[in-house]
Amino acid sequence: MVRGGSTDPLQYAVYHISNSVNEISVYPALQCGMPMDVRGRSRMKKIEHQSLSDRAYQALKDGLQEGVFLPMQPMVIRNLAAEYGISATPIREALQRLVAERLLIVLPNRSIVVPRMTRELFLDLMPIRVSLEGLAARLATSNFSPKDLEKLEKLVQRVANAMTHYDAKTYLLLNREFHFAIYEKAGNPELLQLINDLWLKVGPVFTGLFDDAYFREHANDEHQNILRAIKAGDAEAAQHYMQQDIDIAAKALLPLMPEDDVT
After folding, report:
1. Highest mean pLDDT, choosing among 49-63, 211-225, 231-245
2. Residue 83 reports pLDDT greater than 50
3. Is Coiled coil a UniProt keyword of this protein (predicted)?
4. Which residues in the chain are classed under CATH 1.20.120.530?
5. CATH class, range 52-113
6. pTM (2 decimals)?
């Protein structure tokens, strides 16, 4: 029998509060009827509250990946606040976070702008993208359900429609959605984060894709090939066509890259 008249150690923990600040009483959790693990800790997940600053931060990151913001475009707080329908404070805080992460830069005149993508940096990033995004496509191939494939097919159709209307903005948004619908199926959060980071760097130059006549006519070719490969369960083919898609886009973008960083 333990102290307190009970042979059950858990009951003892409930009715006796330790004098040591290093020991935790499980009483509040039991009293509330919350599910606990063997150590008396609540198994319930905390409900996350996302502040306006966090939401603004995510919206700006999405914009960088989708080519909404161009290289050297000034990020004017009042304009962004009006665009997103929020006050200036969360936009300012989000911009400060992006500057700290080197996704935006501050010029000598204190303007915050999207960094310029140089030819050298773009070529440095290319083999990393080809390797990681191709790997993600290969890993993802076996994880698609019929419903997932239907969603992917609809995305390819929507991309084709955007191209028919030469709608670059919609194409860029759908292009990102298509790619990440695949990358998320790889089942590898670390790989997904690395790809996310790469797209944050290269996304702002994607608007230039529609300046290339060949790309405008063939931008969806590899998407269709990727879709067919995934439907057939051919992971190697999915990897190959994903890498080819990245390569074709790179060839369209390279002529637009300055040789040196003049910022």
Report:
1. 231-245
2. yes
3. no
4. 119-256
5. mainly alpha
6. 0.75
Q: What ranges in the chain are assigned the alpha helix state H?
A: 9-15, 27-31, 52-65, 77-84, 88-100, 119-140, 146-164, 168-183, 189-202, 213-218, 221-231, 235-253
Which of 214, 237, 217, 211 lies closest to 226, judged by CA? 237
> Are 116 and 263 a contacting pair, CB within 8 Å?
yes
Do the bridges between strand 105-106 and strand 112-113 make them parallel or antiparallel, or are there none, so unpaired?
antiparallel
The total number of residues shown for the chain amounts to 263
Q: Which residues contact 263 (CB under 8 A, 6 or more apart)?
A: 72, 105, 107, 113, 115, 116
Q: Which residue type occupies 173?
A: L
Q: What are all long-range contacts of 260-263, with beta carbons under 8 Å and residues at least 24 apart?
A: 260/118, 260/120, 261/116, 261/118, 261/121, 262/116, 263/72, 263/105, 263/107, 263/113, 263/115, 263/116
Q: Which of these, 96, 71, 69, lies nearest to 84 by C-alpha position?
A: 69
> d(Cα 62, Cα 56) in Å, to the nearest integer?
10
- State how far the alpha carbon of 10 is from the alpha carbons of 17, 26, 34, 36, 150, in Å: 12, 8, 15, 12, 51
CB–CB of 113/74 below 8 Å?
yes
pLDDT in tens, 59-68: 999 999 998 9
- Give the burial string for 116-138 (b: 16+ CB within 10 Å, else e): bbbbeebeebbeebbebbbbbbb
- Domain formed by 119-256, architecture: Up-down Bundle (1.20)
d(CA 135, CA 133): 5
Domain with CATH 1.10.10.10 in the chain: 52-113
Tell me the two tokens of residue 67. 């080519």
Burial class for 161, CB neighbours closer than 10 Å (0-12, 13-18, 19+): middle
